[in-house]
């Protein structure tokens, strides 16, 4: 997952590099609302948990939690590639810089 994030996500995104566990926490530019982006991801057959699910006050709208515990490595690569494309489209649509 980490290699795929490096390869397919915009340079503006950051993420944790866990030493274990099941998830990677991804932060996108603040203009991206991961909850609003979810329907596009579902159409691309990708699911994640929007960051707002982890805050009582709606904070974290630009964050998402990605799981690497169940899917096969190939499905993870495919999913991250698809999700990276969606994120880049959202950034472009919202006027964000792409690097």
TrEMBL record:
Domain Aminotransferase class I/classII large, chain residue ranges per copy: 12-83
GO molecular function, one term: pyridoxal phosphate binding
Cofactor(s) it depends on: pyridoxal 5'-phosphate
Xref: InterPro entries: Aminotransferase_I/II_large, Class-I_PLP-dep_aminotransf, PyrdxlP-dep_Trfase, PyrdxlP-dep_Trfase_small
SUPFAM superfamilies: PLP-dependent transferases
One biological process term in Gene Ontology: alpha-amino acid metabolic process
Signal sequence coordinates: none
Entry keywords, A to Z: Aminotransferase, Pyridoxal phosphate, Transferase
PANTHER family found in the cross-reference section: AMINOTRANSFERASE (PTHR42790), KYNURENINE_ALPHA-AMINOADIPATE AMINOTRANSFERASE, MITOCHONDRIAL (PTHR42790:SF19)
Official protein name in the record: Unannotated protein
